[in-house]
Amino acid sequence: MGKNIVILGGGYAGIVAAKKLEKQYKKRDDVSITLIDKQPFHTILTELHEVAGWRVEPDSVRVAFAKIFGASKVKVVYDAITGVDFKKSQLTSATKTYGYDYLVLGSGADPEFFGIQGVKENSFTLWSFDDAVKLRYHIEEVFEKAVAEANHAKRRKMLTFVVAGAGFTGIEMAGELLEWRDVMCAKWLVNKNEVRIAIVEAMSNILPMFEEGLRNKVEGYLRDHGVELLTGTMIVGAEPNTVKLKDGTSLETETFIWTAGVSGSNFAEGLELSKGPYGKAGESDPTKKNRKGRLLVTDEMRSVDYPNVFPVGDNMWFVEGDGPLPQIVETAMQTAETAAHNIIAAIDGGTPKKFKSNFHGFLVSVGGKYGVSNAMGMRLSGAPAMFMKHFVSLHYLIGVAGLNQCWEYIKHEFLDIQNNRSFIRGIGSYKTRGYWPLLLRVWLGLTWLFSGINKIAEGWLNWTNGSKSSWMFSPGVVQRGLDPDAVANATSAASGAGAAAADPVGIDDLFGAVEAVADAVADATGAASGASDGGSFHGVWDFSKAIFSWMGGVASWMRTTMMDTMVAGLPFQLFQTMVLSAEMFIGLTLIFGFFTWFGAAVSVVMCIMFTLTGMNAWNQLWIMLAGLMFMGGGGRAFGLDCFVVPKAKKWWNGTTFARKHYWYHENPSKK
């Protein structure tokens, strides 16, 4: 009888569990894996502040499940689960029931308001995609209204932003606000001194997970940029546009952002499973309620009530060492890995695994230009810390959706970034209009097209004249399809006439002649120059010289390992037809903008081959560089690609191969 594994929630924990289980059972028809989530996408929660602060576009923090699981056996169901019957091993929604043999519970977390009156009703949170988008547009609207507000008190309230909590989310949100403040002030001609950004923290320090040195650097950066740090200050209540503090004062604001607490999910709270107790190191305190939405688990990440249920990430409560596991991304991923391992062990009869954390440290950004990090044994600040943060994000994303998603991340964070809001500023974000490279694309196409046409005129398709490409090979190498005796006689005659002195191959070819003439002209010019100025100045770089000498190490290695072996085995008629056809193909694709990327790619490959075999001079290098530019999309404007590529992309993105290996552009076309 088959086994049915259900994963509830497509967050960090759900993705890791699904990936590990799919890898184990991708070829097993007796094991099914189903992931259930309310949304069709995975949300990168650690980057929500970038969306809220208008640094990146909303789609940058969403990765479609159709992209993540592609053509894998993981079945993704979009549904809102309302309850779980653990005795019957069933999940229920408003319309359907789902049975399971093993259940991974990863329904995430919700903000914790600690029962403070009015906070939930009068604050913005930053714990979901919808939260980030709502806050994003609210802040922009506030600035627009404030510009037209004549009442000083109302204007002051509009331009005051209060962030409650100085942990990861609070500090990162404040960092986005201070950068966005500068952008909005420049846009609406508002004096930066009118904008107030305040962080309210009940503890005496910000970022308690960092050592004092790094905390001080963040504090200094925030203060230097005009952010108020109200540490040791408790919030005791909130009303519309007002935040009440314990000392009796209040902050008037239309933007109150709550990041001061997180609990388990409200959904998990309603489940009939044992919750984690209050108290130090997990010691129970019967006078207090249990941990909200934090489900008690064993060291195998099993529920203490049902061994086939595995709460993970923010849903689980497990004490390790002196305290419970923190609600961070690494906890979610590592607990999910343990749960998946033990499900596999239960199905296949392996040895269960006991959980042991392996945290690598913490990283926090203060906007897009500054951050601190104590990850992997290195304490960094500024640009190095931001580099580390982006590196960690890419490491995670490559496991989620391959290089495709990593490229999307790089585009969002660096290539499409606006207002220089990156630690490398806007160095990679400037865009060129597509019509500017048009003439270069056509000229490059004509260069290749007429090169092919000229070869026809030179007799490359006239087989009775023998090979026109023998000069690409070493002396004595005979291409397939040629008469060895005729080649030997021709070579001997050429040598007797003195051709060997001019051509290292012993064959009088066009490239050798051109190089000889170029050398003679260069020598004559140098002699004349020396005679006129006493030899005080000589050329620095002769662009007519080959990039790699025909007799040099690189060209000789390339010629003997590839040309003299694999290529020489092709009939010379076929080889010459291939070269000629490739040149004309490149020319036509570039001239008409028809599958430009492929034409440019072949152009680059041909140039590399010619260069490595000693046939390209420095003044021909522009051909390869232009090809690289057109591979990057620089040649799409005013071409047939605008009609053809969308249809071709849609077809390709829907293929099983592309979806399985993440080899598609943007998103897959179908499930």
List the helices and strands and how they pair.
Layout: E1 3-8, H1 12-25, E2 31-37, E3 41-43, H2 48-52, E4 62-64, H3 65-69, E5 74-78, E6 81-85, E7 90-93, E8 97-99, E9 102-105, E10 109-111, H4 119-122, E11 124-125, H5 129-147, H6 152-158, E12 160-164, H7 168-188, E13 196-201, H8 212-224, E14 227-231, E15 235-239, E16 242-245, E17 250-252, E18 255-258, E19 262-264, H9 266-269, E20 295-296, E21 309-311, E22 316-317, E23 319-320, E24 323-324, H10 329-348, E25 363-365, E26 371-373, E27 380-381, H11 383-415, H12 438-457, H13 484-496, H14 499-502, H15 510-533, H16 553-563, H17 572-592, H18 596-612, H19 621-634, H20 641-653, H21 656-661
Descriptive account of the structure:
The chain is an alpha/beta fold. The chain folds into three domains: 3-38 and 79-110 and 264-350, FAD/NAD(P)-binding domain; 113-260 and 361-430, FAD/NAD(P)-binding domain; 438-636, no CATH class. The chain is built from 21 helices and 27 strands. The longest helix is centred in the middle third of the chain and has 33 residues, at 383-415. The radius of gyration is 33 Å and the shape is globular. The model is unreliable at 493-518 and 524-532 (pLDDT under 50).
